[in-house]
Design brief:
256 residues, mainly beta, 13-stranded mixed beta sheet, two-stranded antiparallel sheet, 15 strands, 9% helix
């Protein structure tokens, strides 16, 4: 009996330090992770006013091979001076049938060269110096080769009409290296009159399939109130040396 008691005390003497070591484990706070999706770009382009809805779908491929798709619908607009307004909304599985929450509201002022980004949940707007591209399609070579062995090939898809706008189509196929199983494929339908891509389709081996379409395009002058930040929000002016990170579309991982 005494031998069993001594043996039990022997085990406890080794077990207790292990438990204490686990209880003392500490680390700094973890910020978690999130992903953002870069959507349709709206340049300044004076003299080309419009208001429209951007419809986004993003089919994700998980490591186990399963797929899921998230959606959203958001408003974009530009006036004749070149002021630009963009909504940013959460991407969710039901975003194709229901309105998803707004994550931010963005206002570009071409006269003051400022970007104002407002976050409704915080009732705060951040203002910073900003210069936006004035729009225009870039002329790109048919093939761009890289020293690493990868290349980008480009081809014309011709012209057609979308939303009563004449558009020009093109496709880019990017190969990172020889033997890559799947290339990155991008398709663009560009409307010169507005200076934007009204349709963008992307397929990336890791990112999945991303589709953007600009619909319900109204080329009349938008309501001026659309380009005014919400009243009552706190205004924070950022110095010229600071570049605030602009938001893209937010995946459901941050929709909490």
């Amino acid at each position: 009996m005494l031998r069993r008691v001594l043996f039990g005390l022997f085990l406890i003497s080794f077990a207790v330090p292990v438990v204490r070591a686990e209880a003392q484990t500490v680390h700094a706070p973890d910020g978690g992770s999130f992903e953002r999706l870069q959507s349709i770009d709206v340049p300044e382009k004076p003299g080309a006013p419009f208001r429209a809805t951007v419809i986004t779908s993003w089919k994700r491929r998980l490591e186990d091979g399963t797929e899921f798709t998230v959606y959203n619908r958001r408003t974009i607009a530009r006036d004749s001076v070149g002021h630009v307004f963009q909504e940013r909304r959460y991407l969710k599985p039901n975003g194709n049938t229901q309105t998803t929450p707004v994550t931010s509201l963005e206002y570009y002022d071409p006269v003051r060269n400022e970007m104002t980004q407002c976050t409704p949940v915080a009732a705060r707007c951040v203002v910073q110096p900003w210069r936006m591209d004035s729009g225009g399609a870039a002329s790109l070579p048919a093939v761009t080769a890289f020293a690493t062995g990868g290349k980008i090939t480009r081809e014309s898809l011709g012209e057609k009409s979308i939303e009563n706008l004449q558009v020009t189509g093109s496709r880019e196929i990017s190969t990172i290296r020889m033997g890559q199983s799947e290339p990155t494929i991008k398709e663009f339908w560009y409307a010169p009159l507005l200076g934007i891509n009204v349709v963008v389709k992307r397929f990336e081996p890791r990112g999945g399939a991303e589709n953007f379409s600009v619909e319900q395009i109204d080329r009349n002058e938008p309501d001026p109130r659309l380009f005014q930040p919400p009243q009552g929000f706190q205004i924070v002016n950022m110095p010229a040396s600071t570049r605030y990170v602009m938001s893209g579309e937010v995946t459901p991982t941050t929709a909490r």
